[in-house]
Task: structure prediction
Amino acid sequence: MNSADAGEAVKNYLRDNPPPNARRVFAFGLGKAACAMTSALAASVDLSGGLVITKHASKRGLRLKRITILEGNHPVSGLESLKAGEAALNFASQLTEDDLLICLISGGGSALMTAPQIPLADLQALTSSLLACGARIDEINVLRRRLDRLKGGGLARAANGARILSLILSDVVGDSIEAIASGPTAPDPSTKSDALSILEKYKLTDSLSAAALSSLSETLKPGDPVFKRVKNVVIASNSIALRAAEAQAQAEGFESKILRADLQGEASLVGREMALELRKSLKTMSRPFCLMAGGETTVTLRGKGKGGRNQELALGAVDALDGLRDVLLVSLATDGEDGPTDAAGAAVTGESAQRARRFGMSAADYLSRNDAYPFFDALEDLLKTGPSGTNVNDLVFCFAF
Result:
């Protein structure tokens, strides 16, 4: 889908908005889409140098002159992320007020690069606990911004007053720039009190040491002089992708309807709700039609199964679609990676429950241990696209043919 193509989004923006002149122009790519975005920039702008921090640099095959390319860890920062953070600080420290830094920011950057103010092991434990208890990504990033020198405007602060243009692919509901990759060039409107409230909400206050809690310092706020020469622009998002999908569905002869672009909450429950909405729409809409939604759900881990939030969402829809004819629900991650698996998501039809029963499987049983991957693997209904090179959150499509 071209609307979510990271490189095309950069090209389109630069075509209509040429960057300002500068003595030297540098690139800083961060996130899962950093390779495609940096390649597009290099094709349009003569770069003096740059740094790219991403997840799949080797698979993207990016080779650019004067550009250093590093791979970080995801979804939990590790030693490679720590090295990337040190490289980013060193890179930014060499800029001057006469330089232009074009940042190419996309989802995943929060984990891929870190310069923590607490021991890495403590940061890893906190992040893992937040992911396991179903915390939203915006909540996780409120804490990350307070525990890292590069987040919450930290990269902008380290850039010695260089002019900064950040082109951003949004992978968060609402497109809040401070939440995307934890806002390395963005002011942070949240407070230390917000961070403490999140820890209390998920009963994780005791998981941080007294030293770590004292490190939850305030971040750079809107209006800070650091941002006088910074411009942040969202160039692609889930909403844009949904509108493009709606237009394509209509061109293919489907009556189409966007239900929402702010899906959040427990993935399995959202899957059931989407399936029930499809079932209800069978009475009011003419076939063929397509309902669509986007956002980012969460999974509260109750078992030790294998899967991701899109597979879990699809699994939650299986029983609700049972017995319906000529229907299909598809849930997928636009980055091609759903959780720690090689699948982007999964597909469900009205026959999925019946087919599962032939294998002695029930959706409820597999849901109870968060084990969506083996369920859909047995049915051969996993979607495996490989890393897409972009990241604008998740998409859910409900078809009736």
User: Anything to note?
Assistant: The first strand starts at residue 24 and ends at 30. The radius of gyration is 21 Å. The chain has 16 helices and twelve strands. The chain has two domains: 2-236, 239-400.
